[in-house]
Amino acid sequence: MEPTLMVIGLNHRTAPVAIRERFWISEGRRPEALLQLERAEGVDEVIVLATCNRTEFLLWASDPGLAANSVLRFLSAEYGLKLCEWKHFYRLLDDAALLHIFRVASSLDSLVLGEPQIISQLKGAWQLAQKVSSTGRFLDAVLQKALTVSKRVRNETAIGASPVSVPTAAVELARQALGTLENKQVLVLGAGKMSELSARYLMNQGAQPVCVINRTYEHALELATTLGGCAAPLEDRWQRMVNADIVISSTSCPHTVLSRDEAELVVRERSGRPLVIVDIAMPRDVDPAVREVHGVFLYDLDDLEKVTQHNAGERQAAALDAQKIVEEEARGFRRKLLAERVVPTIVALRGRLDEICRQELESFRQECGPFSKDEDTLLADVAGRITRRIAGSLARELKELPEKTEQEQMTVAVKRLFHLETPEQALAGANS
Hints:
Shape: elongated
Strand order of the largest sheet: 7-6-5-8-9-10
Largest sheet: 6 strands, parallel
Order of helices and strands: EHHEEHEHHHHEHEHEHEHEEHHHHHH
Low-confidence stretches: 423-432
Radius of gyration: 28 Å
Structural class: alpha/beta
């Protein structure tokens, strides 16, 4: 079985936020996840992409079936995956996997079509995999090309012309609930990029003042200073929530920061004023039961999808143009991947031909020799030329076959005819 590009994952299209947050891999756990999977059966290379809307495993798999089972075992052991939940995960191979990666990089598969954050998220996932050495020449080539395709899509289409993102969608939800954002007090829980973007969009709509609370007070103060707002210690969050009109929550806390009971206590002190809470964290910061508290409007990532239809016509037209580019690039790059796949077999073939050549030369010397030094050099040179011609011809045939099935059949035939060792052994021999 030849190595194969594969993607296993779930996203906002296949799973609700309650499922996505269960299998979201936190930043601190990703290095170990990469190391575990890189050592797992069937997996040669792996990159983990985990955002608020997706958890995906990008794999270069020596055996797709074994690799899928390895991912299944990992999710079962680390995240309690049940077989009935496997339906939320997609498994894409070869062309479908390549097209999917290019679509993700070009923000065509995002919750908010055309959003720009996915590019930095994909780069970060790739850089981490390189740091722990879980990626190699195949996935490196795929990711490099995906980012190039993304750049072309943004340069040649209007996919990013209407700046809609998770933070802008969050602001739109707040505006719909309150009518106006003028002079609305904002409390930001968390000091990350999403928190900053959300706060800036709210301020652009007239909301003020802004208060930032973070587990690390220094980080809260730093963000508050750039926003021209104030920072508060974590223990003051309840009183700050009593005074706020809008709460944007985007922490990296592994558990909820606001329960229903706590929300009810906050509401009692608000004199009937409505409170909008937009939870854009993964996993969620706010207990879903807070929706049942009278006077609280709670929105999470699933709710954001409902407001992303703003300028949908323009973005959908741009998406059609972008899709054409992505498909064209995928077709072209697919040929390069097919050629790369057979390199180990070509290395093994060349080694085998060299071995046959040496054996036949030695036999010829014993039967017809001895030869002078010049004659021996000439014989070795002729034999080497024949070896290179045969290896070169077969290499071109293997690389230039347009379909994977044909290539696999030809590769199997070459291995059988020449009694080749496995590609891994050939590469090990070539590198020794």
